Amino acid sequence: MIKAGIIGATGYAGNEIVRLLMQHKDAEICWYGSHSYVEEPYAKVYPNFFQLTEALCADDNIEKMAEEVDVIFTATPQGLCAGLVNESILQKVKIIDLSADFRIQDVQKYETWYGISHKSPQFIPEAVYGLCEINREAIAGARLVANPGCYPTCSVLSLYPLVKEGLIDPQSIIIDAKSGTSGAGRSAKIDNLFCEVNENMKAYGVASHRHTPEIEDQLSLAAGTPLTLTFTPHLVPMNRGILVTAYATLMPQVTQEDISAAYEKYYANEFFVRVLPPGTCPQTRFVEGSNFADISFKVDSRTGRIVVMGAIDNLVKGAAGQAVQNMNLLFGLPETEGLTMPPLFP
């Protein structure tokens, strides 16, 4: 039985890790870490767990936690994990970090986009980017996994086969993405109040969103050359879900059959990536509560471009579900263990 500890268990992503691990036959939660609710019953913070757990929230003492568990999930703001991790801890326990601290290999780029100094850059080279469908083998042998961001997960999975196979001009990519409000976390913010969000839709982080370099880095690796793209996120009045609509110029002579073959090549055997039938557009409602990524595309022969669409649940495939998927790989378990629940509908 894998013993798990969660730092940030009372945030939205941490809460989702709890929900998923409670269904996992090979894992048990031994530490519900929280900065704000120490000694509070976890089921009081999240009443949906009433009578499902009697555990109390503990502090975020990672040194003590590392002595008691096999894996630590850090569902925390940027900078915290980098400030806690050290060689002694990594020798005792595996860490799956849900923040951006180890996703970007260039320290200067990280510090520029996130506006903070990196406190443990010596561990960046060994951190494995935890997009399971692409880095499966490297993840299995890692001590430190950088769990991808929600927008990058949906964007990279949607575009990866096209970039990897050279079917599009990698410098022509434009990504338009929309997310539910849970993506901003549970902390109180004026912009996320009901009256600010309800009956409203807005772009934010225009030409400056922090997930931009992460998306660029991963697609650059796929392309084999550095690329620059345009990424614009939007906030929509729903709890969960991300919908990505990406546009790119097709390379000369590329056909719809070539594109279909590329998606088949990379995702035919991937349980969590569902390439939808032609003419079917992904919808967030059909992935809600699940670890699935639904992908589709449409060739626009009039403009010589392709429109690629992807949908995920930002809290599951975009955060907690992917983290559990990474845990399964780290411990040699079936990758789908604890994650085969169908999406919720309606």
What is the gist of this entry?
Helices cover 31% and strands 19% of the residues. By secondary structure, it is of the alpha/beta class.
Explained architecture:
The protein has 346 residues and is α/β, with parallel strands linked by helices. It folds into two domains: 2-126, 3-Layer(aba) Sandwich (Rossmann fold), CATH 3.40.50.720; 151-314, Dihydrodipicolinate Reductase, domain 2. It is 31% helix and 19% strand. The protein is built from twelve helices and 13 strands. Strands 8-9-7-10-13-12-11 form a seven-stranded mixed beta sheet. β12 and β13 (305-312) form a beta hairpin. α1 crosses α12 (316-330) and α7 (132-140) packs parallel to α12 (316-330). The longest helix is centred in the middle third of the chain and has 15 residues, at 150-164.
Side by side, the strands of the main sheet go 8-9-7-10-13-12-11
How many strands, what sense, and barrel or not for the largest sheet? 7 strands, mixed
Number of helices: 12
Q: How many beta strands in the DSSP annotation?
A: 13
Topology:
Blueprint: E1 2-7, H1 12-21, E2 27-33, H2 42-45, H3 62-68, E3 71-74, H4 80-84, H5 87-92, E4 94-97, H6 107-114, E5 128-129, H7 132-140, E6 144-146, H8 150-164, E7 174-179, H9 194-197, E8 202-203, H10 212-223, E9 230-235, E10 242-249, H11 256-267, E11 273-275, E12 293-300, E13 305-312, H12 316-330
Parallel strand pairs: 1-2, 1-3, 3-4, 4-6, 5-6, 7-9, 11-12
Antiparallel strand pairs: 7-10, 8-9, 10-13, 12-13
Helix pairs in contact: 1-12, 7-12, 8-10
